[in-house]
Amino acid sequence: MPYSSFTLAKIKKEFGLTTVEAGRFLPQIEAIAPSSRLQMMLEDLPWAIAVGSEKAKSEGIIYPILQEVRRIVNNQVSLFSGRDFTVDADKGLSGYVDYLISRSPEQLEIEAPVVVVGEAKRDNLNEGLGQCIAEMIAAQLFNQANQVNIPTIYGAVSNGTQWRFLKLEQSTVTIDLMDYALPPVDQILGFLVWMVQEG
Q1: Choice among 88-102, 111-125, 179-193 with the minimum mean pLDDT
Q2: CA distance 107 to 24
Q3: Of 33, 70, 118, 148, which sits 20 to 30 A from 62 (CA to CA)?
């Protein structure tokens, strides 16, 4: 049973989670202006929107933004895209994740601590919540199995132009019900860099 089989209701029930539907849970974070490289890449935004496929939005919008986050932190984190992240197949925590960021600079293998997971969706962000939370639980268990206990795992569900953020602390998932729009990318970059460095 892969991550994609989880709905919000199913993940809550199977893992005994409490969800908090809230407004913004992130502190006041300074926006980060994009590099000229990212600005050039986001010039393809109309194409990715017009094509409308999850793959086009993922490759044309989301991945370049996450690469920019990695550059901003001087490549001191690793970014994985479309990697198998099977942590506990018996619990359904198996399959491929769209995006995963670890605080380890190692790129050959996923190493703890995993701090952010991202899920790309074509349209409806709500449909990606269960899958993203399942991946966040897997990250939490992966970190614990590697003796790296960090209090908070962050998640993001995005269709490229809208981003929704989540956090997992023990068995409580907080979902920011505000969707953050792109463009501009500055606030989203600020959020992601903060999650990677400080969260």
Answers
A1: 111-125
A2: 32
A3: 148
Token pair belonging to 188: 């989203």
Percent of all residues in the chain with a pLDDT value above 90, rounded to a whole number: 79
If you search the block for the tokens 């409806």, which residue do you land on? 124
Write out pLDDT tens, residues 106-150: 999 999 999 999 988 877 899 999 999 999 999 999 999 999 989
Q: Which residues, other chains included, contact 47 with Cβ-Cβ below 8 Å and sequence gap of 6+?
A: 56, 60
Close Cβ partners of 109 (under 8 Å, ≥ 6 residues apart): none
Closest to 189 measured CA to CA, from 67, 77, 78: 67
Integer Cα distance of 55 and 48 in angstroms: 9
- C-alpha–C-alpha distance, residues 139 and 111, integer Å: 10
Phi, then psi, of 100 in degrees rounded to 5? -150, 135
Q: How confident is the model at residue 1 (pLDDT cuts 50, 70, 90)?
A: low
Task: State how beta strands 153-158 and 162-169 pair.
Answer: antiparallel
Dmax over Cα atoms in the chain, in whole Å? Answer: 45
How many other CB atoms are found less than 10 A from the CB of residue 11?
A: 23
Rounded to two decimals, the pTM is 0.94
The first and second tokens of residue 181, run together, are 């729009």
15, two tokens: 């893992």
E strand segments, the chain: 18-22, 78-84, 96-102, 114-120, 153-158, 162-169, 172-176, 180-181
